[in-house]
Amino acid sequence: MLLNTTQNPPEQTVHIIDDDEALRDSLIWLLETEGHTVATYPSAEDFLLAWSPEMRGCALLDVRMPGMSGLELFEKLLTLHNTLPIIFITGHGDVPMAVTALKKGAIDFIEKPFNDRDMLKLIEQCLSIDREKHSQWRQNAETARRREQLTGREREVLELIVAGRLNKQIADDLGISIKTVEVHRARVMEKMGVASLAELVQLVMAAEVRR
Amino acid sequence: MRIPPPSSHRSTSPSRFYWTAPYVAVVLFALAMFVLVWILQRHEAEIERNALMRDVQWADQTIQTHFIANERFLAQLARDIAIDEMTAETFQARANQYLANNLELLNIVWIDASGAMRWAAPLDTEDWLPGDVLSPTQGQIARLARELGRAAYGLPYRTSHGTTQMEVVLPVNRGRSPHGFIVAEYSIEGLLRHLVSPWFSEKYYLRLIDGTGETLVANAASPHINPTLSPLIVFDPPGNGLALRVAALNTDTSPSKVLPIVLIVGLSVLVFWSLWALRSHIDSRTRAERERDQLFDVSLDMLCTLTMGGAYRRVNPACERTLGYPSEQLVGHPLYELVHPDDQADMRLALARLADGAACTFEARVRCADGSYKWLVWNANPVPNDQVIYAVAHDITKRKATEEAWRAESAFRKAMEQSVRTGLRATDLHGCVIYANPAFCDLVGYKHDEIIGLRVPFPYWPDEDVPRNMEIMLAGKIPPEGEETRIQRKDGRQVDVQIMISPLIDSAGVQTGWMTAMSDITESKRIRAELEAAQERFVAVLDGLDTAVYVADARTDSILYANRALLANFGAHALGSSTYSLSLPQPERGDYPVDPRHLQHDALPFELFDGELQQALTGRWYHVRERATRWVDGRIVRMVIATDITDRKQVAELNRQQEERLQQTSRLITLGEMASTLAHELNQPLSAIANYSSGCVNRLQSGRYKPEELLSAMQKTSHQADRAGKILRRIRDFVRKSEPRLAAIQLADVVEDALGFAEIDARKYGVRIDNEIPSALPAVHADRIMIEQVVLNLVRNAAEAMHATPGAERVVKVHALLKEQMLEVSVSDRGHGVSAEDRDKLFTAFYTTKPDGMGMGLNICRSIIEFHNGRLWAEDNPGGGCIFRFTLPLEHAFEHHAEPA
After folding, report:
1. What is the pLDDT of residues B371-387, one digit of tens each?
2. What number is the ipTM of this complex?
């Protein structure tokens, strides 16, 4: 059983990786009650096979499993530039391991046996982080796509504008006439889909920061 | 004996007076003479002074007369000029004539009433020129003269020619009106030269002094003057304070003045010297007398004078001291009265000879005051002219006693030398025999006469030893304990001897030869050789032992003997040091039944200790036996034998520890991990139950649910609760059973339970466990918990062994099959495997390949399996890794075996 989906998949899915069948099954039962889409995997290897960068939602990861452990899987995902927020499920005595994971970027860990309220709250938190990340990603992708449409000269002009140069200075820098700069500038504004200089700078800077 | 102090200065005071008086007399005489001379000289000086005063008065008179005469002449001139009886020619003639007679006057001039010079005599004078007027100084004098109406003198002054002059001015009056002045010039030098007669000038030192005391002219340069006599002649009124000072010129001190003093001093010294010479001569005579008396008094020898008849006349204190009689008691008594009756004959004979005038010496015993006798030797010398005998006696009692003792000593020595068994031989420095005792003669077999006078090399030296013996004899070098050598007797038999050579020193401390002692050691040498051989055997045996053996003094604990094993193990310096200063394994003093230091001889031999002790330093164990016994020199010693039993002990200890750890480990495996296991295992079902329940509650609350869905969830919940219950039961069983309880058990159940625990480790190491036990297997006869532990241990080891294996291959397989009435269980892994040589050690205690392992697990497992009459071993997994197999007897086979019994 690689993928266990019991509901029409919405945009976000809760991925559960645990070797104990009873735990997986009970979690599906609990989370679907709350209206989440749940996918379960009996081992880390199974999850890796199913993983794709487009995956949305969050992952609940058991620290200790036969074969690849939860921590090993987490480190593997880090190398794959995974954006999926991850929560660790730990058993008795695994807390130090979970803290290590936390330091490396896991969202949180939850100790078995867990309180369902805490669990659901944590999952909610993760999903909202994921949503935010996703919208940013989409915006960046859009900015990047628009920048792709610019010609070489327009890209140069854009960079100088963002750097705060005046039209006259840009003309000097590039060795072209002010008229030409103004034409390029108008094109850039149009292609980037902004109405003002401030909007343009904000868009470009935000993309730079997130990159 | 106390010597009375010499009474030498008894008559000191009168003799000092006798000696002082002449000295005082001489001094007084000399003083009187000095006074006399002084008085005479003073009288002479008085006479001289009177003469001087007379002369001075005379001179005064003369000079005054001159001045008055000159004034009169000048006054006469003035009068003549006033009455115009004078012409220039008469003035010249009179004045020049007067000037020629009175050389102290230089010139005379007339100054007329108008104040100009009119006449001057002599004519060629340079002091005045016609027409000259009076100088202011002269004017002053002139006014003074006018006022006085008589001659006025000016102050002496020094002219440009270096002469000193003085002016006298007389007024010339015509009637009552002034008619100029007569001015005359005195030469001060001329005054002294011409007014004083030459004899006076020769006799005295004359000085003309002005009013201020300054010397104007003197008749000698720096004369020797007598300062006490210098009267002053004042010319008053002529000069203003002009005066003549006269001083007597000192004539040479006449010898007549000095001579008496010299004579007085010289004679006094002569008298003193003769007195002193006389005194020293008398002193030496007195001292000689005193010394003679003292000699007589303090002499330690008895000195006395006797009458020719032999009676004491005078005796010295030594006689009193020696004999004890006061001198009064002795004097007058004849000499022989006190002499011992045995010596009286000799005494009378000696006295008879003395009476003949011959000096003689004799010895006699004399009775002392206390009744004892003393030996005295007398030296007597008669002086027939004085009818007296001088005698000196000397106490020789001690010498007599010494002589007696020496004689006895000499006899004793002689006897000793004759009887001693050691041969004694003395040689002089040239190696010539000067003495040999009978024992020596016997030893070498030569007669005494043959030996005396022999020279090196001696005939009893074996020929081959001659060079070495020569060397010894010449150098005199031989160790103090002696040297062994051989001699050849006259009969040709060779004998081993011990010789000792020492220098022969005479009473003056000079070496005169060598003394040789020689003893026969043939027999003792043989005995010693035998003893040495026995000793060597004994030492060889003791040193050959590995066991440390030593003997220590029971009282001081110092080690008297130690064999090689002890020296090697506990320090080569052990001999002589205390046993407690070494790290020997030995009981504390309190551990002995009695304190060894207080053991008595009658209790020996005594068993002090027999037990095992650990040496604190090395931790090695020794079996120590101590026994008190009597040592060769009679003292009580502890004889100790310490055998190293560490190895034996270690094996026993190892066995014991192994046993202990077996139990410990079982408990660790069961109890130690109980809490962890429980928590881990219960987490899973409890989490699932919580999830199912929460899900149900949520759905029921929302109202969106299907009953069959809820049912399924509730069933699953119940199933998980069951699972939790099983876990708890399993642990409870584990805890309850501690005694081995053999029963018929199903292996599959046992393995399942064990894997339940093993899963924790499996998860930790990311290992999968495949349980491949067939379900239908016959029961085995075993203790369930013990077998569970074995399986758990093997599976755990397998899981740990695969830490380096790739994840997918991390599988532990548990399998079982029937084999000849036994069930064989195998646990295989894909780990690093075990090398062939390690495999042999795997099951020994304390062997481990794990970094934190104790090395007990497999050892215990094998113990458990062997307890069940099974077998546990390891072999290589053909696919890599290792397989552990063990066998267990089947239940029915066991019954089959057990029934006959």
Report:
1. 888 888 888 888 888 88
2. 0.71
